[in-house]
Amino acid sequence: MLYLIWLRSLLRRRWLALAAVTAGIAVSVALVATIAGFFAVTRARMTEQAIADVPIDWQVQLAPGTNVEEAVKELTTSPGYAKLGRVGYFDTPGLRSTDGVTTQETGPGKVLGLEAGYRNMFPGEIRQLLGEGNALLAQQTAANLQAQPGSVVMIRRAGLPDAQVTVDAVVDLPLADSLFQAVGAPPGSGPQAPPDNVLLLPLDEWHSLFDPVAATAPDAQHVQLHVTLPHDLPSEPSAAFTNVQRLARNYETRLAGAATIGDNLSARLDAARSDALLAEVLFFFLGFPGVVLAAVLTIVLISSSRSRRRREQALLRLRGASVGKIVGLAALEPAVTGIAGGVLGVPLASVVMQVAFGTWGFEHTAAYAWYAVAALAGTALPLLIIVYPAWREADSSTVARARASVGRQGLLAWERFGLDFLLLGLSALAFWLTARRGYEVVVAPEGVPRVSVSYSAFLPPLLLWTGAVLLAVRLTSPLLARRGRIVSIFARPIAGALSSLVGASLSRQRLLLAGGIALIAASIAFATSTAIFNSTYQAQARVDAELTNGADVTVTGPAASSLAERLRAIRELRGVVAAEPMQHRFAYVGTDLQDLYGVQPTTFGSAARLSDAFFANGNAAEAISTLERNRDGVLVSAETVQDFQLRPGDLLRLRLQNASDNQYHVVEFHYLGIAREFPTAPSDSFLVANADYIAQQTAAGSVETVLVRTVSSPDRVAEDVRQLLGPASGATVRDIGEAERAVHSSLTAISLRGLTRVELSFAIALATAGAGLVLLLGFEERRRTLAIATALGARPRQIGAFVWSEAALMLAGGLITGAILGWLVATMLVKLLTQVFDPPPEHLSVPWIYIAGVPAATTASVVLSALIVTRLAQRSVLETIRRL
């Protein structure tokens, strides 16, 4: 009966405080549940997301003489297939086309034979451009042969007369890199460029034309099985990768070496497993502060009524209440607020997930466990904070200590031991050691088909967060020392003649003020660090897209495309600001064939963005200027410099193909510096030189690439360029939107966008609601003091001096500490998570509107709460004094 009376009294007299604490716990539980639930749901779909756009899972290349139907039968047995198409590959010495006046010939090429229905099974492999039919000529090959639908193409066959084929249509092969990959190439050999000359025929016709060649040249042709596997794979990419690799090895073993698998599915999962772990890293680095903030909010809200509970428990002890009764009555308040907050927080999290991500958390069993953990934590934390101190103090020897608690509060145990300084020092040391040794957050041990996360990188930001929040609490001690004499100076503009009295009053509320400052600081730091990191990531994603595509619009094509002659017309298109030519040749460095890019240094930057991070000297303008001054100079990739032990000024003899005899000749260059990245260049080995010098030494001034900068929509300009050049030109036009979609399609990008969208929303809610709730709950503790002051004749302005001084102190301390901590954490995150950025950012990108909006919203919340407290303090004075 006593418990029911106590509970009813709590609900009747403390309903506002209970409701505020319940709301704070619900928001905290919702934040934790949303972060954890989204992680669980994303993790459950990682494999599905990673392999959704793999065009062909396996390319099974059969050895000459292998029984194709037997190979299909074995594949049907295990692992089975969803789609299967037979494709023949023939290596032709060349193709020829005659238009009655001139004859065009090409070098070596490929002739593919496609099984009936292949294009329906794998629609992404072939894109129709001109005409209809079965004999298809690749776009670049059509340009080389000056052929079109209706043209006759002659196919050279070793030892046999040329075969004659009438072209029905011209097509594009968007996935030529994978379609013509070297199946069975040794690891580390690097990708091979797809053939320039490709003709596609029906498989039956292909067999009739090229099976006779196999009698004399069996290596000239082979057959592949293009397969889509059943995607009943583990949800985690690492486990799925291991599973698919085992299936591939098992199938190759059953065919006794007669088949070699080009495992595109494993290749995608191999990339996805590292990406998935980076997503996990981001969840920890960006999500963990949210969990900490939720815990801080809960602790501060619960602790705000600590003095009132201690007075009540002391009174119960004086009246003879047993330890069990005191602890039981103390547990009622956290039980009500904790259970109610946990119950409300879980459905709130599910609603947030539906609004933010379009999925109800309850639709996925993977989220159930995390929801339960979040709800239990929201219930257990209030119980722990309230019940344990009540039990510890529930004996007669603590009555005097309980009465003494109304005096000025001293240092806490961790303050006396300097825990905050220790944590900050350890954070700085761990960060220095981690940054010095070039830490990689995702590691793949040599020879081991697994990747893992080194969790030691989490220490620097974790220690910084904890130490900085504790330091914010510590800093309230000197401010409130000596009966608040220091803080009274800052309160003078607000309190006037009452500043000394206000300072003395605030000095008695140290823990409450420290909690409010810590909560605001943690909220601001959480919002600031997450927003800066997300903005920096988004900015670098744009840089990455520009690096991949080269510019807003990029045009590539063979020499037959005559891009140099069309350059002026491209520049005159609407929306084009600049269009710069770039040579893309190949050069031998020793025996290593590398990409060579020829540019006009004086004007190249008008179309392509050159970041300082692209160059080892950290200065793009200086690197390009050096190239301009040295006509035979060359910038070399870091990998090549390391492999060949180059020093600035070294003579570098490259072999380049000369247009006069199509042979490779030695051309001398001088090594100037390192280019880590360059527009459109591969990430490993490449060279950058002066276009004029290359043209002179190779007797060829052709342009293979045109980079276009636009002021209007890049996709619209790209379409105008396509229409200008025409489909028969053999040129390929790409806009930056395609590159951005590729960059943003990764698991890391998906996880980061979803995570930050939730966290930034909760950060505003926690910063505004938390600050206001602390002030309101603090009023519940000081209601009696303010009521007595009102009864003694204090004017509203004098009452407001107490409230506004407290609000100003919490707000100023929290905003300043939070801004500094947020910037430090963001800097640390960007440094530690360098792997996420490609290339690394030159500086942090600050979203000033959001950064200014969070403090503004927090300030507005505190001001509103202060107005409410001031108004409430003047109501029902006698009732308040009598009740308290």
Explain the overall architecture.
The protein has 884 residues and is an alpha+beta fold. Helix content is 56%, strand content 16%. The chain has 30 helices and 24 strands. Helix 2 crosses helix 12 and helix 10 runs parallel beside helix 13. Mean pLDDT is 81; it is low at 402-408 and 444-451.
Summarize the helices and strands and which ones pair or pack:
Elements: H1 2-13, H2 15-44, H3 46-51, E1 58-62, H4 68-77, E2 83-92, E3 95-98, E4 103-105, E5 109-114, H5 118-121, E6 127-131, E7 136-138, H6 139-145, E8 152-157, E9 160-166, E10 169-172, H7 176-179, E11 198-202, H8 203-214, E12 221-228, H9 237-254, E13 259-263, H10 264-303, H11 306-318, H12 323-357, H13 368-392, H14 399-404, H15 413-417, H16 419-436, E14 442-443, E15 452-453, H17 459-474, H18 476-495, H19 499-507, H20 510-549, E16 553-556, H21 563-571, E17 576-589, E18 592-599, H22 620-629, E19 633-636, H23 638-644, E20 651-657, E21 664-674, E22 686-690, H24 691-698, E23 705-710, H25 714-725, E24 732-735, H26 736-744, H27 747-791, H28 796-832, H29 848-872, H30 877-883
Parallel strand pairs: 5-11, 7-10, 18-22, 19-21
Antiparallel strand pairs: 1-12, 1-13, 2-5, 2-12, 3-4, 3-8, 6-10, 7-11, 8-9, 14-15, 16-23, 16-24, 17-18, 17-20, 17-23, 19-22, 20-21
